[in-house]
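Hello again,

I reread your note about wanting to compare the complex against the isolated chains. To keep things tidy I'm splitting this into two emails, and this first one only covers the full assembly. Below are the input lines as submitted, including protein chains and any nucleic acid or small-molecule components. They are followed by the predicted structure of everything together. The single-chain runs will come separately.
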Amino acid sequence: MKRILSSQLTAHVGATVRVAGWVHRRRLLKSVAFLIVRDAAGLAQVVVTDPAARAALEQLTEETVVEVTAMVVATATAPAGVELTDPTVRPLGPPAVPPPFDLYRPALTATLPTQLDNAPTALRHPTRSAALRISAAAVAGFRAALDGRDFVEIHTPKVVASSTESGANVFALDWFGRPAYLAQSPQFYKQLMVGVFERVYEVGPVFRAEPHDTVRHLAQYTSLDVELGFVADHRDVMAVLRDTLAGMLGAVTERAGGALATLGIAAPRVPAEIPAVHFTEGLKIAGAPADEPDLAPAHERALGEWAMAEHGSDFLFVTGYPMAKRPFYTHPDPARPAYSNGFDLLFRGLELVTGGQRLHRYDDYLAALAARGEPVEPYAGYLDAFRHGMPPHGGFAIGLERFVGRLTGAANIREVTAFPRDLHRLTP
Amino acid sequence: MKRILSSQLTAHVGATVRVAGWVHRRRLLKSVAFLIVRDAAGLAQVVVTDPAARAALEQLTEETVVEVTAMVVATATAPAGVELTDPTVRPLGPPAVPPPFDLYRPALTATLPTQLDNAPTALRHPTRSAALRISAAAVAGFRAALDGRDFVEIHTPKVVASSTESGANVFALDWFGRPAYLAQSPQFYKQLMVGVFERVYEVGPVFRAEPHDTVRHLAQYTSLDVELGFVADHRDVMAVLRDTLAGMLGAVTERAGGALATLGIAAPRVPAEIPAVHFTEGLKIAGAPADEPDLAPAHERALGEWAMAEHGSDFLFVTGYPMAKRPFYTHPDPARPAYSNGFDLLFRGLELVTGGQRLHRYDDYLAALAARGEPVEPYAGYLDAFRHGMPPHGGFAIGLERFVGRLTGAANIREVTAFPRDLHRLTP
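Full-complex prediction:
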């Protein structure tokens, strides 16, 4: 008999079926016992009345893996409208050692550190697994949106020869006796690949040796990277980002509806055109001094409120950040060279995505590095490609865990990360 | 005027259009000059007769990025049946420095090391980019096949606390002052996640500090990992692998047909049921002594020939490899415990995929490690999950570059890798 999932029971009323999963909970009442089996699709309620079966059930600790062959009966009072009766319960392994928290309670009551120390079992809790299902759906939507726009998926090196981009916060590595570093982003590689495919994306791990212990930072996270060529300026990039976000949230709704329901949330609507304000205008709206070089968190929150009040939008683009605050490869605004063709996307007043147009002329790179007093040598291999013809281009990067964290309202990014890596945590 | 791609020209005969791309080649004849523009979709031929335009064209070196506004004319003698006439050519950057090889020749004549040293330009050659397009299509097919079978995509740590699995061939890392290692595979994590989602997959980088310089090994490659629970034995895993492979090759044919044509190859057919032989039977077929503990490359070749002759199949499963040759987490064949429930998939006589059923009981892990004289401690965090209830499960891993290399008949795996990492190579 082929195993069916708990979600398929309603289609088998009156039939004998086989289900399998984990002992989620037992309720041993006086006259009857209930066994709740958890599988990938949800829960199934098994009714045990036979004394021998009940005695066996008493030995089956929570999280033991079992197989149940039983009759499906429609019961209005059962959680899913069906239950399994007259069961044969067969353990598929020894009785489980119960985890240090009850997985059957609506919320995981253990502290986050305890959850993270016991991730393999904590992640079995529906609230924790729901966030990871939303994550998988968001990535599927990301890819589908870009595949539909002729982007090509790439895979780039995660170990590099020089600590480019920021210099600080890199992990050092011994590469066959040579010094090497974990890649902080695929930035340079995705730009180079614009020279090959024009439009590329990558989903992969990036590494930041963040010395700070915050609720927003991970030392390894999943970066959703996009880069496209033949843009007029950053606005072409923003249009692709808008469509990509809509695709991601559409896929979350479509593919992870159950997970959204578990968490009691809905995916926000992405406006057909996301409102955009220039950085200088943003300062005014936020009531900040006109000479501020960047937006503080309080300013971002004020802008988020403004976007909702003025445009009914959870999202807001802030464009034209000062060049001084953006990386050296950022393209300036030709009309106002102190400001960039770079943008941030705020989601409910929090920065969610950074992107912009990049420099595409070799000489501009040399000038940008010289102006910052940075040497050319560490970037030589990367810059060389710009001597061989690169189109105007730009792109953006979305931190997957940050995206899911904000969507789900998680207080700590580690709540939506299966096995986080940070200053203190290297296991499990 | 919106830019169109070279592949869209035939739909615009008689109209003025804008195309953009790289100067692929110029042919300066006496009475006429041709400019071949390469974009993401292919080539466009531009006819230049105006003397001033010709003089300008003479300054546009190969690989310069240009935008061309011109009239589309149907011409039976032109390569694609259309060409662009009366053009206005505008460079989108300074004249390019030509790469150290001609990208317009049918084959890249530069040696592989020269190509790899100049990867950002070498990858622009249609034969090199075709392999990467096939790669992207194969991964898309991999995901689609598994998404359709209720698998959930996961992202696992690439930095781990102990050098598990093999002990040798790991890259050591400084993690905030603590020793750490690059993950050689997501093996343990994907098994743990079977406890959460039952069926999971991951596409991500893995790292092997291979001290050998061969045409088959990379120090970083992309691993396509799958793991599923509630299997009867390894045959359930093989069935999923068969469907996954069919999905991958179907997607390659569907999404990368042009790339296959560029390379002059076709995707092989995956039989509805891939033939399978037990290891002991395989030795006999290959004419090897019955006490051989493993299949040598010559044996695999012989088996590949046999599969084609007997079953008309490019693929062959070899099951039941001796336990002594498989990793400690391998599940033995209950009927013949010296042999495993592990398998290899051969493609045209070469090992392409390794997989099998895994142990799922904590005590079995302890016994397996003890039998090998291995300590439990480095695996403690991983093994702990098996005390909390794990179903019978198994999985497999496909090396993406190896898969594409064999599909395309590449002599060296580096030919199908954008920016390979190996014993000698850490740049670009």
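For quick reference: Chain A touches chain B through 90 residues (CB under 8 Å).

B.
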